[in-house]
Specification:
It is a single chain. It is globular and about 100 Å long. Helix content is 34%, strand content 20%. The strands form 13 sheets. It has a four-stranded parallel sheet, covered by helices on one side. The chain has a four-stranded antiparallel sheet with strand order 6-5-9-17. 40% of the residues are buried. Helix 2 (15-29) crosses helix 25, helix 4 (95-104) packs across helix 5 and helix 22 packs antiparallel against helix 23. It is built from 27 helices and 39 strands. By secondary structure, it is α+β, with helices and mostly antiparallel strands. The structure holds one RNA strand.
RNA sequence: GCCGGAGUGGCGGAAUGGUAGACGCGCAGGUCUUAGGAACCUGUGUUCUUGCGAGCGUGUGGGUUCGAGUCCCACCUCCGGCACCA
């Protein structure tokens, strides 16, 4: 059955033959290759996709959404005369290939190559106009040579250092993981349990770029939400560091960081993080047992476990006291894990009156509370964190928060008790991984010291291994490659031991966009002249899941390269757009009581149970036809009091709602698929997939095909009306592509075809520009039609049609006539008609007169060509 | 809790403060056909009306305006991110 339908599709619109023909043509003619030595007097456009990790499961329909959008822009800009750089490559290091190697003994390189071939074939089957001669692969030694080279630049600038860092260690994976790779105490990949261990690690000093990473956002055209996420991640705050002298320890003070120095008169106790170095110094003998027990208990908890139990704050008194530098009074020093060792100084002055966490702690342990900001009269809460006049604060009394802050900081500074201080939440970047399938870090150890290898020793390639099992020690699998491990330090000529850590997957993606510019250069990372021409990336399209990490790390490396004089811009990505996630098809779900078999209203289902009876319920996927909408929700037609859940879910293997692009292309062709991916809705929006929707764009292409092949193309000169339709379409499509509104651009193309179907024939002078407009969206069918219209060359570089203003205005327009804001008639006038004539015509309409009660209106409004509004007397 | 974004037909969505629902899916009727799950044409927010036309309608309640999906205020719901960062 399906085959018969397919044959019919093929017969009327032979997309398979067309698509393979043109893919072959582009490949053999290198249509989209742009030479390294390019004519730099032309304007350039660099349109970049976030390169994929070539996973074993191939592309899903979410990938091609962003890729299609960028491809449309690339093809459009080429036709606009730009030199277009539109490359692709592979972010191919990573854990899955290594884990596969563990299970099967297959070398990660084999797996990676296989996956890349699959991805490459899939991307080619979609007809993307990448310059395949610029493909990069992060696992290629010719590529990671330069990743290592950048690491050496970081090292020599003091931005890469070793530290003993408490890190997440995952026994199952045999490696450490970054904070962001551990979710709820389990590894992001695989879901294995993880624990904290202190290990020697390479760390990148991203924090010294915190301020610039923050400031640089101002000059980028990025989604506001992404900038905001980066700002929050960097987490700049302004405040003060203040020293609190410790009783009986005259030589020691507790330094705290606070953003509210104005509340210091309300600091009634202090808290040290359990890991704080002074805990052991100040704790009194009587308190020692309790404090030690508390410390070891806290060490076993993860950050999450600490914060999960927010409501039950824990802590223990050290027996020691500090002196409040403002009031001079003695206040107790506690240890509590609600204070983080890793932020600020690891110690706080606790001001329960103005801080909810401190209030909670103070209440729990009976510590004094002293308000220093007057809350408003109607304030009913506990701690008051808003603005108000200072109270109980001696010389600060009466000042509002901002004033009080600067006043107290001036005082602290003049007394030598504190200083103004800016703090960031951003931490340095843990850069070590105890894995095999990553870039080796180009460092050797001799006499316990780390030494950079010289540039000419690069690339440091991975040794061949038979075993990929983690060594079980924090050293990782490379420690097992003894021949590789023991080497000579070229600087001294003496035996040395290689670094066995490798780089995290983020490393290769921090700079790949630079290598595309000059991919085969063996002398430098990128030729400076070419870099200056092509950078920055004009349009970067990729998922919002990279809003913080990849985009922050890449910006950091780029700023370092900028400081080192290697690149010419400090920000790499001028404009950034995130494609929205594509969900599975809309699902209609009914709920049924497992025990009784009766339907259960969705509003009564709680956590898999019926709310009233507590019985277990099961979900039943039902077809759309048996559902019905009643006011704002869906119910079963046969039982209107049974509400349904209707929504689309994220595609996942376990849910079984994954759509495979290969199957869609097989059935409808790449052009129809590309068109549907963007016709669904705005690029940046989350939207559900609908295979039936693909039929719509397929039908459209078939109509195009029949319009321009079966119907007669003739050489008559086009009518003014036909020219109007064409030029309006040109204007709409051009504007929509410029602003990435691909869905409405496609709608405009559809409207053109609908209009053209009403014509008896299509003049060649109309057909040609239309095919060019269609080309960025549906390149295969467009090339074929272009050839049939009598051209022997690809249309890829044919100039984009220009819209002519004279055809953008109609001779007559229909203008609605409102009375009191409601449409009562429509009149037909010339767009530039005289205002009074239009108003007279409007008022002469019978229906209008009826609603004006046959009296002259009190007010008359005419927006030329748009609307008449008459206000009745 | 905090910070973003979004709520429009049966569904995806469109709309410089100016006729709400373009375009597509679905549905209904028709044409052609041995056939239709193909193609083409017509219709399709909802209620009343034979028709002309009229009432209602963009999450809820207010407001600004000749005119509000669009601007302002308050609230509700959903999605995404962050979450003891002092």
């Amino acid at each position: 059955m399906i085959r018969r339908a397919q044959r019919r599709k093929m017969a009327t619109y032979p997309f398979k033959a067309i698509e393979s023909k043109w893919q072959t043509y582009w490949e053999s003619h290198k249509t989209f290759h742009i030479p390294v030595e390019v004519d730099t007097s032309n304007p350039k456009f660099y349109v970049l996709d976030m390169f994929p990790y070539p996973s074993g499961s191939g592309l899903h329909v979410g990938h091609p959404e962003g890729y299609t959008a960028s491809d449309i822009v690339a093809r459009y800009k080429r036709m606009r005369g730009f030199n277009v750089l539109h490359p692709i490559g592979w972010d191919a290091f990573g854990l899955p290939a290594e884990q596969y190697a563990l299970r099967t003994g297959t070398h990660p390189r084999i797996t990676t190559e296989k996956n890349i071939s699959r991805f490459r074939a899939q991307l080619k089957s979609l007809g993307f106009s990448y310059d395949w001669d610029r493909e990069v692969d992060t696992t290629d030694p010719d590529y990671f040579r330069w990743t290592q080279w950048i690491f050496l630049r970081l090292f020599e600038r003091g931005l890469a250092y070793e530290a003993e860092v408490p890190v997440w260690w995952c026994d199952a994976l045999g490696t450490t993981l970054a904070n962001e790779e551990v979710i709820d105490g389990k590894s992001d990949i695989g879901g294995h349990p993880c624990e904290r261990r202190k290990l020697r690690q390479w760390v990148l000093r991203i924090t010294s770029y915190a301020e610039r990473l923050l400031q640089g956002l101002e000059e980028t055209d990025w989604p506001a939400s992404t900038k905001e996420m980066q700002r929050n991640w960097i987490g700049r705050s302004e405040g003060a560091e203040i020293d609190f002298p410790i009783q009986d320890h005259a030589d020691q003070a507790i330094r705290v960081y606070t953003t509210r120095p104005d509340t210091i008169f309300g600091a009634t106790y202090m808290v040290l993080a359990p890991e704080h170095s002074l805990v052991g110094v100040i704790t009194t003998p009587e308190a020692l047992d309790g404090v030690t027990a508390y410390q070891s208990q806290a060490a076993r908890k993860s950050d999450l476990e600490r914060s999960e139990l927010q409501n039950e704050k824990t802590g223990v008194f050290t027996g020691a006291y500090a002196q409040n530098p403002a009031t001079g009074s003695l206040i107790p020093i506690w240890v509590a894990d609600y204070v983080l060792a890793t932020y600020g100084t690891g110690a706080i002055m606790a001001v329960p009156g103005q801080d909810e966490r401190d209030w909670e702690f103070a209440e729990q342990f009976g510590l004094p509370i002293r308000r220093t900001v007057q809350p408003p009269e109607d304030f009913t809460g506990n701690a008051f964190t808003g603005d108000g006049p200072a109270i109980n604060s001696e010389f600060l009394n009466g000042f509002h928060v901002a004033e009080a802050k600067s006043c107290i900081i001036d005082w602290l500074e003049s007394e030598g008790k504190g200083t103004r201080k800016i703090n960031y939440k951003l931490r340095d970047w843990l850069f070590s991984r105890q894995r095999y399938w990553g870039e080796p870090i180009p460092i050797v150890f001799e006499d316990g010291g780390a030494h950079a290898l010289p540039d000419d020793a690069l690339p440091i390639t991975l040794p061949e291994l038979e075993e990929f099992r983690p060594s079980g020690s924090p050293e990782g699998p490379l420690a097992l490659a003894t021949d590789w491990l023991h080497t000579i330090n070229p600087a001294t000529g003496r035996p040395a031991r290689r670094e066995t850590n490798t780089m995290p997957q983020w490393a290769g993606s921090c700079w790949y966009f630079l290598r595309y510019i000059d991919p085969h250069n063996t002398d430098v990372l990128v030729d400076p002249g070419l870099e200056k021409y092509w950078m920055p990336v004009d349009l970067y399209i990729g998922g919002a899941e990279h809003a913080v990490l990849h985009l922050l790390y890449a910006r950091f490396w780029h700023m370092v390269l900028y400081d080192a004089g290697i690149v010419s811009t400090s920000e790499p990505f001028a404009k950034l757009v995130h494609q929205g996630m594509i969900l599975g098809e809309l699902e209609y779900t009914a709920w049924r009581n497992v025990n009784t078999g009766a339907w259960v209203c969705a509003s009564k289902v709680m956590d898999g149970r019926e709310r009233d009876s507590g019985d277990e319920v099961e979900s039943v996927r039902i077809v759309e036809e048996v559902a019905e909408k009643v006011s704002d929700h869906f119910v079963l037609k046969e039982a209107p009091d049974i509400r349904l859940d209707v929504r689309a879910f994220k595609m996942s293997k376990s849910r079984g709602n994954v759509v495979n692009p290969d199957e869609i292309i097989e059935q409808y062709g790449a052009d129809a698929f590309r068109l549907y991916e963007l016709f669904m809705g705005p690029l940046e929006q989350v939207k559900p997939w609908s295979t039936r929707g693909v039929q719509g764009t397929f039908r459209f292409l078939r109509r195009v095909w029949m319009l321009l092949t079966e119907r007669k193309i003739d050489d008559t000169s086009p009518s003014v009306e036909q020219l109007r339709v064409l030029h309006k379409t040109i204007a709409r499509v051009s504007e929509d592509i410029e602003s990435l509104r691909m869905n409405t651009a496609i709608a405009a193309l559809m409207e053109f075809v609908n209009a053209a179907y009403k014509w008896s024939s299509v003049p060649r002078a109309i057909a040609k520009p239309f095919v060019l407009l269609l080309a960025p969206f549906a390149p295969h069918i467009s090339e074929e039609l272009w050839e049939q219209l009598g051209h022997s060359q690809s249309l890829a570089y044919v100039p984009w049609p220009e819209s002519q203003a004279q055809y953008l205005v109609d001779e007559f327009v229909k203008v609605p006539v409102q009375v009191n804001g409601k449409v009562r008639a429509t009149i037909q006038v010339a767009p530039d008609a005289d205002k009074n004539q239009v108003l007279e015509l409007a008022k002469s309409n019978k229906n209008v007169q009826r609603f004006l009660n046959n009296k002259p209106p009190r007010r008359e409004i005419y927006v030329p060509g748009r609307i008449v509004n008459l206000v009745a007397a």
